[in-house]
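Reviewer 2 asked us to include a model.

Predict the structure of this chain.
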Amino acid sequence: MIYSTATPAGTGPARRSVLVLGATGGTGRLIVAQALARGHDVHVLVRSPEKLEKATGLEGATVTVGDARDERALRNALRGRDAVVSALGTPASPLREVTALSESTRALVGAMRAEGVRRLVCITGMGAGDSVGHGGFFFDRVIFPALLKKVYADKNRQEALVRQSGLDWVLVRPSVLNDKASGPVVRAFTDLSGFHGGTIARADAASFVLDQVSSDAWLHRSPLVSW
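Predicted model (structure tokens):
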């Protein structure tokens, strides 16, 4: 399926109150900026004031300081929200086990159930679940086994928690992210036959993710998004 990437500020679906996790990351900052431009009421949960001071592009969002693995902090940030966008990430970890993504998601699912917030749009990545082996030769044979195997093991646990949550979820799997300007179109698909690697601008991935806050087009599915 092909999507136009043009979404003028102040247009589109009705205003929502959205909590963004991972808002200080490269993609998370763009999600916040685009959500504000669309007229959404944006709240972010950041781990520490120090991380907030280093981040840019969060002006206009309501900030709560707390750990995304802490269900009580999540419940406080979730109260009154309509939806959650999780853009949580973790560095490459060739040696140490990774658990932060699944720990945060487990706490988030519990908090969302407790607060009655049903819509969850969660970014994982190309290489998670049945998208493994579709990153192209260099990604699949070099980068993934050398740097990302443990990260993606945790992304798989994260996806399983989302699928089993009973929430209204969408799992978004971007191809390799870059910081280029937006392209004219974004492809989104779940049939990966014939797909072997790709890239996408963070801005385009952010736009697609925000579309899922209000749309049921990909509800309970895990589209891969790429140029």
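The longest helix spans residues 137-163. Helices lie at 26-37, 49-54, 71-78, 100-115, 137-163, 202-211. We have added this to the supplementary material.
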